[in-house]
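Wed. Picked up where I left off yesterday with AAA family ATPase. The coffee machine is broken again, so keeping this brief.
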Amino acid sequence: MQPKLFVALAGNIGAGKSTAAKIISRHFGFELFHEPVVENRFLKNYYKDMRRWSFTLQMEFLLARVEHHRSIERLPGGCVQDRTLIEDPEIFAKYLHGLGHMTDNELHLYFDYFQRFNEHVRQPDRVILLHTPDVNVLLRRIAERGREEERGITTDFLRGLNGYYETFDQVSANKYNLEVLKIDVTHRDFRQGEERKRFLEEVQAFLEDALDSNNELPFMVDPTDDRI
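Structure written out below (tokens, as returned):
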């Protein structure tokens, strides 16, 4: 039996969460929960008019992520989630409110819903935060993946989000009692052999602390295998 372990990836847009989540899923045999970006009905409208659609977008993401948490609770084995539930309230909602894209009442209503939902869902056993202070790295990776709806993302927008991510590990630990591994991805590409192996060794050591002596993490594939 695989250990019932729930690990979540966190990080700014373009930090490499999806890639890292796929690598962890394939390597350890964990069920992968993709970030519900493609399924979000309001994302294209949001990037065209953030003031109009920010609250609606955040509510859509909240419902989708809560459903992921409920599914994870029902599954018997390990799971990996692409973006944490708490990033939306602690980073995106607060930032969008600060930019004037959400009103005070919208922010308060959003937090009311988040707090009620969050009381009844399982929290991650471990969080892995991928971070870089260099927003040009994020912009390059966003351009490489070529999502149409992300073409309008600016340097200033990413820099503003980065300000919140600088303290996200502290907020996660102090407010939500979550253990966080923070990895600087400025000069790292987990898709390549030795760097991929190094990343998986870091993850292995971090996750083993969450397991009791009767469980151990499986290695499903060669850690230097570059396929995702």
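Quick read: The chain has one domain: 6-208.
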